Task: structure prediction
Amino acid sequence: LDTQGKFAERMSGLVCAMSGETPLDPVVSVKSGNLFEKTLVTKYVQESGTCPVTGEPLTLDDLVSVKSSSTAKPRAANATSLPGMFAAFQGEWDAVVLESFELRKVLEKTRQELSHALYQHDAACRVIAKLIKERDQARADLASAASAPAPAQAAAAPAAAGRGQAMEVDDGEGITEAMMAKIAEKAGMLSKARKKREPSAQLATAEAVGAYKEAKSFPVHLSNPVNCVDAHKSNSSLILTGGADNKVVLFNVATGQQAAKMEGHTKGINRVLLHPTANSCFSCSSDKTVRAWGTDGAAHHTWKQHKKDVTGLSLHATGDFLVSASMDSTWAFYDLTTGTCRKSVTTDGAGFSVATFHPDGLILGTGLADGTVMVWDVKSQANVLSFPAHKDAVASLAFSENGYSLATCGKDGTNVWDLRKVAKQGAAATAVKTLAGAASEAVFDYSGTYLAVANDKNLNVYVCKTWADLLNVKGAHKAAIGGLSWGPDAQFLATAGKDKCVKIFGQ
Result:
Protein backbone atom coordinates (compact mmCIF):
# COMPACT_ATOMS: atom_id res chain seq x y z
CA LEU A 1 0.00 0.00 0.00
CA ASP A 2 2.82 2.38 0.77
CA THR A 3 4.37 1.72 -2.65
CA GLN A 4 1.00 2.31 -4.35
CA GLY A 5 0.61 5.62 -2.48
CA LYS A 6 4.05 6.82 -3.59
CA PHE A 7 3.19 5.90 -7.19
CA ALA A 8 -0.08 7.83 -6.98
CA GLU A 9 1.75 10.83 -5.55
CA ARG A 10 4.18 10.76 -8.47
CA MET A 11 1.28 10.48 -10.96
CA SER A 12 -0.39 13.58 -9.51
CA GLY A 13 2.38 15.68 -11.06
CA LEU A 14 1.62 14.40 -14.56
CA VAL A 15 -0.98 15.59 -17.07
CA CYS A 16 -3.58 13.90 -19.22
CA ALA A 17 -2.22 12.88 -22.62
CA MET A 18 -5.43 14.15 -24.23
CA SER A 19 -6.27 17.42 -22.44
CA GLY A 20 -2.85 18.49 -21.20
CA GLU A 21 -4.40 19.11 -17.76
CA THR A 22 -3.87 17.37 -14.43
CA PRO A 23 -6.55 14.65 -14.35
CA LEU A 24 -9.10 14.58 -11.57
CA ASP A 25 -9.78 10.86 -12.09
CA PRO A 26 -6.58 9.52 -13.70
CA VAL A 27 -6.32 6.17 -15.47
CA VAL A 28 -3.33 4.54 -17.15
CA SER A 29 -3.29 2.42 -20.28
CA VAL A 30 -1.59 -0.89 -19.57
CA LYS A 31 -0.61 -1.10 -23.25
CA SER A 32 0.95 2.31 -23.85
CA GLY A 33 1.54 3.57 -20.30
CA ASN A 34 -0.10 6.94 -21.07
CA LEU A 35 -2.07 8.80 -18.42
CA PHE A 36 -5.61 9.99 -19.21
CA GLU A 37 -8.61 11.70 -17.68
CA LYS A 38 -11.02 8.80 -17.19
CA THR A 39 -14.12 10.53 -18.59
CA LEU A 40 -12.29 11.64 -21.73
CA VAL A 41 -10.58 8.39 -22.58
CA THR A 42 -13.67 6.31 -21.75
CA LYS A 43 -15.79 8.26 -24.25
CA TYR A 44 -13.05 8.05 -26.90
CA VAL A 45 -12.55 4.31 -26.48
CA GLN A 46 -16.28 3.64 -26.60
CA GLU A 47 -16.52 5.52 -29.92
CA SER A 48 -13.33 4.36 -31.67
CA GLY A 49 -12.04 1.33 -29.78
CA THR A 50 -8.44 2.57 -30.12
CA CYS A 51 -5.84 4.39 -28.05
CA PRO A 52 -6.07 8.16 -28.69
CA VAL A 53 -2.26 8.46 -28.70
CA THR A 54 -0.93 5.33 -30.44
CA GLY A 55 -4.03 4.32 -32.40
CA GLU A 56 -3.68 0.72 -31.22
CA PRO A 57 -6.79 -1.30 -30.22
CA LEU A 58 -7.82 -0.44 -26.66
CA THR A 59 -10.67 -1.53 -24.39
CA LEU A 60 -11.95 -0.19 -21.08
CA ASP A 61 -10.46 -3.24 -19.38
CA ASP A 62 -7.00 -2.03 -20.46
CA LEU A 63 -7.42 1.13 -18.37
CA VAL A 64 -6.25 1.01 -14.74
CA SER A 65 -7.40 3.63 -12.26
CA VAL A 66 -4.69 5.50 -10.39
CA LYS A 67 -5.23 6.80 -6.87
CA SER A 68 -4.05 10.39 -6.48
CA SER A 69 -4.09 12.97 -3.78
CA SER A 70 -7.05 15.33 -3.82
CA THR A 71 -5.05 17.99 -2.01
CA ALA A 72 -4.59 21.10 -4.16
CA LYS A 73 -1.01 21.64 -5.29
CA PRO A 74 0.39 24.87 -3.86
CA ARG A 75 1.30 27.65 -6.26
CA ALA A 76 4.90 28.28 -7.06
CA ALA A 77 6.58 31.09 -5.12
CA ASN A 78 7.02 33.24 -8.25
CA ALA A 79 3.23 33.13 -8.91
CA THR A 80 2.31 34.71 -5.58
CA SER A 81 3.39 38.27 -6.47
CA LEU A 82 2.37 40.72 -9.22
CA PRO A 83 5.82 40.80 -10.86
CA GLY A 84 5.83 37.01 -10.91
CA MET A 85 2.33 36.87 -12.36
CA PHE A 86 3.26 39.46 -15.02
CA ALA A 87 6.30 37.41 -15.94
CA ALA A 88 4.12 34.29 -16.18
CA PHE A 89 1.58 36.15 -18.31
CA GLN A 90 4.38 37.42 -20.57
CA GLY A 91 5.68 33.90 -20.97
CA GLU A 92 2.22 32.66 -21.84
CA TRP A 93 1.77 35.51 -24.36
CA ASP A 94 5.13 34.79 -25.97
CA ALA A 95 4.18 31.13 -26.25
CA VAL A 96 0.84 32.05 -27.87
CA VAL A 97 2.57 34.41 -30.35
CA LEU A 98 5.16 31.80 -31.26
CA GLU A 99 2.45 29.19 -31.73
CA SER A 100 0.47 31.63 -33.90
CA PHE A 101 3.59 32.31 -35.99
CA GLU A 102 4.19 28.61 -36.51
CA LEU A 103 0.54 28.12 -37.48
CA ARG A 104 0.81 30.91 -40.06
CA LYS A 105 3.91 29.28 -41.53
CA VAL A 106 2.11 25.96 -41.76
CA LEU A 107 -0.94 27.68 -43.31
CA GLU A 108 1.18 29.43 -45.96
CA LYS A 109 2.93 26.18 -46.82
CA THR A 110 -0.41 24.41 -47.09
CA ARG A 111 -1.73 27.16 -49.37
CA GLN A 112 1.29 26.83 -51.67
CA GLU A 113 0.86 23.08 -51.82
CA LEU A 114 -2.85 23.50 -52.60
CA SER A 115 -2.11 26.09 -55.31
CA HIS A 116 0.47 23.79 -56.88
CA ALA A 117 -1.97 20.87 -56.77
CA LEU A 118 -4.73 22.98 -58.41
CA TYR A 119 -2.32 24.14 -61.15
CA GLN A 120 -1.31 20.54 -61.85
CA HIS A 121 -4.99 19.55 -61.98
CA ASP A 122 -5.80 22.37 -64.42
CA ALA A 123 -2.84 21.48 -66.64
CA ALA A 124 -3.87 17.85 -66.62
CA CYS A 125 -7.43 18.80 -67.63
CA ARG A 126 -6.13 20.90 -70.53
CA VAL A 127 -3.90 18.09 -71.73
CA ILE A 128 -6.78 15.62 -71.50
CA ALA A 129 -9.09 17.98 -73.43
CA LYS A 130 -6.46 18.45 -76.14
CA LEU A 131 -5.90 14.72 -76.41
CA ILE A 132 -9.66 14.09 -76.64
CA LYS A 133 -9.94 16.73 -79.39
CA GLU A 134 -7.02 15.18 -81.31
CA ARG A 135 -8.54 11.74 -80.87
CA ASP A 136 -11.91 12.88 -82.21
CA GLN A 137 -10.22 14.64 -85.13
CA ALA A 138 -8.18 11.53 -85.89
CA ARG A 139 -11.35 9.43 -85.85
CA ALA A 140 -13.08 11.90 -88.17
CA ASP A 141 -10.10 11.93 -90.55
CA LEU A 142 -9.98 8.14 -90.48
CA ALA A 143 -13.69 7.90 -91.26
CA SER A 144 -13.28 10.44 -94.07
CA ALA A 145 -10.31 8.56 -95.50
CA ALA A 146 -12.18 5.28 -95.28
CA SER A 147 -15.16 6.71 -97.15
CA ALA A 148 -13.08 8.50 -99.82
CA PRO A 149 -12.47 6.60 -103.07
CA ALA A 150 -9.09 5.04 -103.60
CA PRO A 151 -6.97 7.05 -106.08
CA ALA A 152 -7.30 5.35 -109.40
CA GLN A 153 -6.49 7.12 -112.64
CA ALA A 154 -8.77 6.44 -115.57
CA ALA A 155 -7.74 6.69 -119.16
CA ALA A 156 -7.02 10.18 -120.46
CA ALA A 157 -10.13 11.93 -121.72
CA PRO A 158 -10.27 13.85 -125.01
CA ALA A 159 -8.15 16.97 -125.21
CA ALA A 160 -9.57 20.11 -123.64
CA ALA A 161 -11.39 22.08 -126.27
CA GLY A 162 -9.37 25.05 -127.43
CA ARG A 163 -6.43 24.15 -125.15
CA GLY A 164 -5.12 20.78 -126.25
CA GLN A 165 -4.47 19.74 -122.64
CA ALA A 166 -4.82 16.20 -121.31
CA MET A 167 -7.52 15.56 -118.72
CA GLU A 168 -7.60 12.71 -116.21
CA VAL A 169 -10.69 11.59 -114.32
CA ASP A 170 -10.54 9.73 -111.02
CA ASP A 171 -13.82 7.80 -111.20
CA GLY A 172 -14.08 6.75 -107.56
CA GLU A 173 -17.73 5.90 -107.04
CA GLY A 174 -18.64 8.35 -109.81
CA ILE A 175 -21.61 10.64 -110.32
CA THR A 176 -24.54 8.24 -110.50
CA GLU A 177 -27.51 8.41 -112.88
CA ALA A 178 -29.73 9.23 -109.92
CA MET A 179 -27.54 12.22 -109.08
CA MET A 180 -27.57 13.43 -112.67
CA ALA A 181 -31.36 13.01 -112.80
CA LYS A 182 -31.66 15.22 -109.70
CA ILE A 183 -29.28 17.79 -111.21
CA ALA A 184 -31.17 17.81 -114.55
CA GLU A 185 -34.53 18.09 -112.82
CA LYS A 186 -33.33 21.05 -110.75
CA ALA A 187 -31.89 22.73 -113.85
CA GLY A 188 -35.22 22.38 -115.67
CA MET A 189 -37.13 23.88 -112.75
CA LEU A 190 -34.75 26.82 -112.43
CA SER A 191 -34.69 27.49 -116.15
CA LYS A 192 -38.52 27.63 -116.33
CA ALA A 193 -38.78 29.74 -113.18
CA ARG A 194 -36.19 32.19 -114.49
CA LYS A 195 -38.31 33.10 -117.49
CA LYS A 196 -41.33 33.87 -115.31
CA ARG A 197 -39.54 35.30 -112.29
CA GLU A 198 -40.22 38.91 -111.43
CA PRO A 199 -37.84 41.01 -109.33
CA SER A 200 -38.55 40.85 -105.61
CA ALA A 201 -40.72 43.64 -104.22
CA GLN A 202 -38.07 44.08 -101.49
CA LEU A 203 -35.21 44.48 -104.01
CA ALA A 204 -33.20 47.59 -103.19
CA THR A 205 -33.72 50.33 -105.77
CA ALA A 206 -30.85 51.86 -107.75
CA GLU A 207 -31.28 55.08 -105.78
CA ALA A 208 -30.97 53.19 -102.49
CA VAL A 209 -27.89 51.23 -103.59
CA GLY A 210 -26.29 54.40 -104.91
CA ALA A 211 -26.62 55.92 -101.44
CA TYR A 212 -25.05 52.99 -99.58
CA LYS A 213 -22.40 53.89 -97.04
CA GLU A 214 -20.52 52.13 -94.28
CA ALA A 215 -23.14 51.16 -91.71
CA LYS A 216 -21.20 48.77 -89.47
CA SER A 217 -17.65 47.53 -88.99
CA PHE A 218 -16.56 44.50 -86.98
CA PRO A 219 -13.08 43.10 -86.10
CA VAL A 220 -14.44 39.56 -86.50
CA HIS A 221 -10.99 37.93 -86.59
CA LEU A 222 -9.47 40.39 -84.10
CA SER A 223 -5.96 41.32 -85.28
CA ASN A 224 -5.96 39.06 -88.36
CA PRO A 225 -6.78 39.90 -92.01
CA VAL A 226 -10.16 38.66 -93.27
CA ASN A 227 -9.82 36.76 -96.56
CA CYS A 228 -13.42 35.99 -97.55
CA VAL A 229 -17.07 36.48 -96.62
CA ASP A 230 -20.45 35.01 -97.53
CA ALA A 231 -23.85 36.43 -96.53
CA HIS A 232 -26.80 34.14 -95.90
CA LYS A 233 -29.25 34.14 -98.81
CA SER A 234 -32.36 34.58 -96.65
CA ASN A 235 -31.26 35.49 -93.10
CA SER A 236 -29.97 39.06 -93.28
CA SER A 237 -28.38 38.78 -89.84
CA LEU A 238 -25.85 36.04 -90.61
CA ILE A 239 -22.53 36.23 -92.44
CA LEU A 240 -19.71 33.70 -92.62
CA THR A 241 -16.07 34.81 -92.70
CA GLY A 242 -12.70 33.15 -93.15
CA GLY A 243 -9.48 34.67 -91.85
CA ALA A 244 -5.73 34.44 -92.02
CA ASP A 245 -5.94 33.10 -88.44
CA ASN A 246 -7.10 29.71 -89.87
CA LYS A 247 -10.57 30.18 -88.35
CA VAL A 248 -14.08 30.29 -89.82
CA VAL A 249 -16.54 32.54 -87.95
CA LEU A 250 -20.33 32.68 -88.17
CA PHE A 251 -21.22 36.25 -87.19
CA ASN A 252 -24.54 37.90 -86.34
CA VAL A 253 -24.40 41.46 -87.72
CA ALA A 254 -27.66 42.40 -86.01
CA THR A 255 -26.30 41.76 -82.50
CA GLY A 256 -22.64 42.30 -83.31
CA GLN A 257 -21.85 38.96 -81.68
CA GLN A 258 -20.07 35.83 -82.82
CA ALA A 259 -22.58 33.02 -83.35
CA ALA A 260 -20.05 30.20 -83.80
CA LYS A 261 -16.35 29.66 -84.38
CA MET A 262 -14.98 26.78 -86.44
CA GLU A 263 -11.40 25.70 -85.76
CA GLY A 264 -9.57 22.89 -87.55
CA HIS A 265 -7.75 24.37 -90.53
CA THR A 266 -4.00 24.81 -90.13
CA LYS A 267 -3.53 27.58 -92.71
CA GLY A 268 -5.46 30.63 -93.93
CA ILE A 269 -9.01 30.29 -95.25
CA ASN A 270 -9.52 31.03 -98.96
CA ARG A 271 -13.30 30.59 -99.48
CA VAL A 272 -16.37 30.15 -97.28
CA LEU A 273 -19.97 29.24 -98.11
CA LEU A 274 -23.21 29.30 -96.11
CA HIS A 275 -25.81 26.70 -97.05
CA PRO A 276 -29.01 28.61 -97.94
CA THR A 277 -31.45 26.10 -96.40
CA ALA A 278 -29.53 23.73 -94.10
CA ASN A 279 -27.71 24.47 -90.85
CA SER A 280 -24.31 23.90 -92.41
CA CYS A 281 -21.43 25.78 -93.99
CA PHE A 282 -18.20 25.04 -95.86
CA SER A 283 -14.63 26.28 -96.09
CA CYS A 284 -11.45 25.61 -98.03
CA SER A 285 -7.92 26.50 -97.07
CA SER A 286 -4.29 26.65 -98.07
CA ASP A 287 -3.82 23.58 -95.86
CA LYS A 288 -5.13 21.52 -98.86
CA THR A 289 -8.41 20.57 -97.17
CA VAL A 290 -12.12 21.24 -97.59
CA ARG A 291 -14.30 21.14 -94.47
CA ALA A 292 -18.02 20.96 -93.77
CA TRP A 293 -19.34 22.41 -90.50
CA GLY A 294 -22.59 22.79 -88.62
CA THR A 295 -23.70 26.34 -87.90
CA ASP A 296 -23.23 25.43 -84.24
CA GLY A 297 -19.49 25.09 -84.89
CA ALA A 298 -19.39 21.28 -85.00
CA ALA A 299 -17.10 19.67 -87.59
CA HIS A 300 -19.00 17.39 -89.99
CA HIS A 301 -16.58 16.34 -92.74
CA THR A 302 -12.97 16.88 -93.77
CA TRP A 303 -11.93 16.11 -97.37
CA LYS A 304 -8.28 15.77 -98.39
CA GLN A 305 -8.55 15.28 -102.13
CA HIS A 306 -6.07 18.00 -103.08
CA LYS A 307 -2.28 18.24 -102.96
CA LYS A 308 -1.99 22.05 -103.02
CA ASP A 309 -3.91 25.12 -101.80
CA VAL A 310 -7.68 24.78 -102.23
CA THR A 311 -8.77 28.07 -103.81
CA GLY A 312 -12.28 27.49 -105.18
CA LEU A 313 -15.53 26.36 -103.57
CA SER A 314 -19.09 26.30 -104.94
CA LEU A 315 -22.41 24.84 -103.78
CA HIS A 316 -24.76 23.29 -106.34
CA ALA A 317 -28.28 24.65 -106.73
CA THR A 318 -29.75 21.44 -105.30
CA GLY A 319 -27.86 22.05 -102.05
CA ASP A 320 -26.73 18.41 -102.12
CA PHE A 321 -23.44 18.72 -103.99
CA LEU A 322 -20.24 20.72 -103.57
CA VAL A 323 -17.25 21.40 -105.83
CA SER A 324 -13.74 22.41 -104.80
CA ALA A 325 -10.82 23.49 -107.00
CA SER A 326 -7.13 23.60 -106.20
CA MET A 327 -3.81 24.92 -107.43
CA ASP A 328 -2.89 21.27 -108.10
CA SER A 329 -5.02 21.56 -111.32
CA THR A 330 -7.74 19.38 -109.84
CA TRP A 331 -11.43 19.94 -109.13
CA ALA A 332 -13.47 17.54 -107.02
CA PHE A 333 -17.21 16.81 -106.78
CA TYR A 334 -18.70 15.89 -103.37
CA ASP A 335 -21.98 14.29 -102.34
CA LEU A 336 -23.03 16.09 -99.15
CA THR A 337 -25.65 13.50 -98.20
CA THR A 338 -22.97 10.83 -97.79
CA GLY A 339 -19.96 13.05 -97.17
CA THR A 340 -17.96 11.40 -99.97
CA CYS A 341 -15.96 12.65 -102.93
CA ARG A 342 -17.66 11.20 -106.02
CA LYS A 343 -15.32 12.49 -108.72
CA SER A 344 -11.92 14.13 -109.09
CA VAL A 345 -10.85 15.69 -112.40
CA THR A 346 -7.27 16.73 -113.20
CA THR A 347 -5.86 18.83 -116.07
CA ASP A 348 -2.35 19.71 -117.15
CA GLY A 349 -0.98 23.21 -116.88
CA ALA A 350 -1.85 26.04 -114.51
CA GLY A 351 -3.73 25.37 -111.29
CA PHE A 352 -7.30 26.46 -110.59
CA SER A 353 -7.71 29.78 -108.78
CA VAL A 354 -11.52 29.76 -108.56
CA ALA A 355 -14.55 27.55 -109.35
CA THR A 356 -18.27 28.37 -109.58
CA PHE A 357 -21.38 26.42 -110.58
CA HIS A 358 -23.67 27.97 -113.19
CA PRO A 359 -27.03 28.90 -111.57
CA ASP A 360 -28.71 25.97 -113.39
CA GLY A 361 -26.02 23.59 -112.15
CA LEU A 362 -25.37 21.80 -115.48
CA ILE A 363 -22.00 23.45 -116.10
CA LEU A 364 -19.07 24.44 -113.93
CA GLY A 365 -16.86 27.46 -114.53
CA THR A 366 -13.23 27.45 -113.39
CA GLY A 367 -10.60 30.18 -113.50
CA LEU A 368 -6.94 29.30 -113.86
CA ALA A 369 -3.76 30.87 -112.57
CA ASP A 370 -2.69 31.69 -116.14
CA GLY A 371 -5.83 33.77 -116.82
CA THR A 372 -7.81 31.11 -118.70
CA VAL A 373 -11.47 30.27 -118.04
CA MET A 374 -12.51 26.65 -118.53
CA VAL A 375 -16.16 25.59 -118.67
CA TRP A 376 -17.05 21.98 -117.80
CA ASP A 377 -20.05 19.77 -118.43
CA VAL A 378 -20.97 18.34 -115.03
CA LYS A 379 -22.49 15.14 -116.45
CA SER A 380 -19.50 14.08 -118.55
CA GLN A 381 -16.85 16.06 -116.60
CA ALA A 382 -15.55 17.16 -120.01
CA ASN A 383 -14.06 20.58 -120.74
CA VAL A 384 -16.53 21.98 -123.29
CA LEU A 385 -15.15 25.50 -123.62
CA SER A 386 -11.92 27.35 -122.87
CA PHE A 387 -10.95 30.96 -123.55
CA PRO A 388 -8.33 33.45 -122.31
CA ALA A 389 -10.01 35.90 -119.94
CA HIS A 390 -7.08 37.74 -118.31
CA LYS A 391 -3.35 38.22 -118.63
CA ASP A 392 -2.78 36.93 -115.09
CA ALA A 393 -4.64 34.69 -112.64
CA VAL A 394 -8.43 34.78 -112.61
CA ALA A 395 -9.16 36.15 -109.12
CA SER A 396 -12.94 35.76 -109.25
CA LEU A 397 -15.60 34.17 -111.44
CA ALA A 398 -19.32 34.85 -111.03
CA PHE A 399 -22.39 33.82 -113.04
CA SER A 400 -25.46 36.02 -113.12
CA GLU A 401 -28.85 34.57 -112.31
CA ASN A 402 -30.00 35.61 -115.79
CA GLY A 403 -28.14 32.49 -116.98
CA TYR A 404 -25.91 34.02 -119.66
CA SER A 405 -23.76 36.75 -118.05
CA LEU A 406 -20.36 35.92 -116.58
CA ALA A 407 -18.01 38.28 -114.72
CA THR A 408 -14.32 37.55 -114.20
CA CYS A 409 -11.67 39.56 -112.33
CA GLY A 410 -7.95 39.96 -112.63
CA LYS A 411 -5.14 42.47 -112.27
CA ASP A 412 -6.05 43.85 -115.71
CA GLY A 413 -9.64 44.67 -114.68
CA THR A 414 -13.11 43.11 -114.59
CA ASN A 415 -14.48 41.52 -117.78
CA VAL A 416 -18.15 40.78 -118.42
CA TRP A 417 -18.94 37.99 -120.90
CA ASP A 418 -22.07 36.87 -122.72
CA LEU A 419 -22.00 33.07 -122.68
CA ARG A 420 -24.18 32.91 -125.79
CA LYS A 421 -21.51 34.77 -127.75
CA VAL A 422 -18.63 32.98 -126.04
CA ALA A 423 -20.07 29.60 -127.07
CA LYS A 424 -19.87 30.70 -130.72
CA GLN A 425 -16.53 32.52 -130.52
CA GLY A 426 -14.70 29.83 -128.51
CA ALA A 427 -11.04 30.63 -127.79
CA ALA A 428 -11.39 33.94 -129.63
CA ALA A 429 -14.14 35.18 -127.31
CA THR A 430 -14.19 38.87 -126.42
CA ALA A 431 -15.74 40.55 -123.40
CA VAL A 432 -18.89 42.62 -123.86
CA LYS A 433 -17.71 45.03 -121.19
CA THR A 434 -14.42 45.75 -119.43
CA LEU A 435 -14.41 47.65 -116.15
CA ALA A 436 -11.06 49.30 -115.45
CA GLY A 437 -9.01 48.73 -112.31
CA ALA A 438 -7.29 45.70 -110.81
CA ALA A 439 -10.03 43.68 -109.10
CA SER A 440 -10.05 40.86 -106.56
CA GLU A 441 -13.76 40.00 -106.47
CA ALA A 442 -16.92 40.55 -108.53
CA VAL A 443 -20.39 39.41 -107.40
CA PHE A 444 -23.86 39.68 -108.98
CA ASP A 445 -26.82 40.12 -106.68
CA TYR A 446 -29.49 37.37 -106.85
CA SER A 447 -31.73 39.34 -109.20
CA GLY A 448 -28.88 39.97 -111.65
CA THR A 449 -29.55 43.72 -111.44
CA TYR A 450 -26.30 44.84 -109.84
CA LEU A 451 -22.63 43.86 -110.05
CA ALA A 452 -20.37 44.68 -107.09
CA VAL A 453 -16.61 44.84 -107.70
CA ALA A 454 -13.72 45.10 -105.24
CA ASN A 455 -10.96 47.25 -106.75
CA ASP A 456 -8.09 47.03 -104.29
CA LYS A 457 -9.32 49.18 -101.33
CA ASN A 458 -12.30 50.58 -103.23
CA LEU A 459 -15.86 49.32 -103.65
CA ASN A 460 -17.84 49.81 -106.85
CA VAL A 461 -21.38 48.83 -107.83
CA TYR A 462 -22.57 48.85 -111.44
CA VAL A 463 -26.03 48.57 -112.97
CA CYS A 464 -26.07 45.52 -115.25
CA LYS A 465 -26.75 46.01 -118.99
CA THR A 466 -26.04 49.78 -118.90
CA TRP A 467 -22.95 49.31 -116.70
CA ALA A 468 -23.49 52.69 -115.14
CA ASP A 469 -21.24 53.31 -112.12
CA LEU A 470 -23.88 53.39 -109.41
CA LEU A 471 -21.71 53.43 -106.27
CA ASN A 472 -18.04 54.28 -105.85
CA VAL A 473 -16.66 54.13 -102.31
CA LYS A 474 -13.03 55.23 -102.27
CA GLY A 475 -11.01 53.70 -99.46
CA ALA A 476 -13.83 51.43 -98.34
CA HIS A 477 -11.09 49.55 -96.46
CA LYS A 478 -7.63 50.66 -95.37
CA ALA A 479 -6.15 47.60 -97.08
CA ALA A 480 -7.18 45.42 -100.04
CA ILE A 481 -10.69 43.96 -100.04
CA GLY A 482 -10.54 40.16 -99.97
CA GLY A 483 -14.22 39.26 -100.36
CA LEU A 484 -17.68 40.57 -101.25
CA SER A 485 -21.19 39.26 -100.73
CA TRP A 486 -24.67 40.66 -101.31
CA GLY A 487 -27.32 40.39 -98.63
CA PRO A 488 -30.89 39.25 -99.43
CA ASP A 489 -32.58 41.49 -102.05
CA ALA A 490 -29.39 43.57 -102.32
CA GLN A 491 -30.29 45.23 -99.02
CA PHE A 492 -26.61 45.44 -98.06
CA LEU A 493 -23.09 44.51 -99.11
CA ALA A 494 -20.71 42.65 -96.81
CA THR A 495 -16.99 43.17 -97.42
CA ALA A 496 -13.95 41.42 -95.97
CA GLY A 497 -10.70 43.37 -95.78
CA LYS A 498 -7.04 42.73 -95.24
CA ASP A 499 -7.30 45.61 -92.75
CA LYS A 500 -8.77 43.05 -90.31
CA CYS A 501 -12.33 44.37 -90.61
CA VAL A 502 -15.64 43.07 -91.91
CA LYS A 503 -17.86 45.93 -93.04
CA ILE A 504 -21.54 46.25 -93.89
CA PHE A 505 -22.46 48.85 -96.51
CA GLY A 506 -26.12 49.81 -96.58
CA GLN A 507 -28.54 52.52 -95.60
In short: Residues 415 and 434 are 5 Å apart (CA to CA). DSSP finds six helices and 32 strands in the chain. The helical segments are 2-11, 38-48, 82-147, 177-196, 206-210, 419-425. Residues 1-5, 149-171 have pLDDT under 50 and may be disordered.
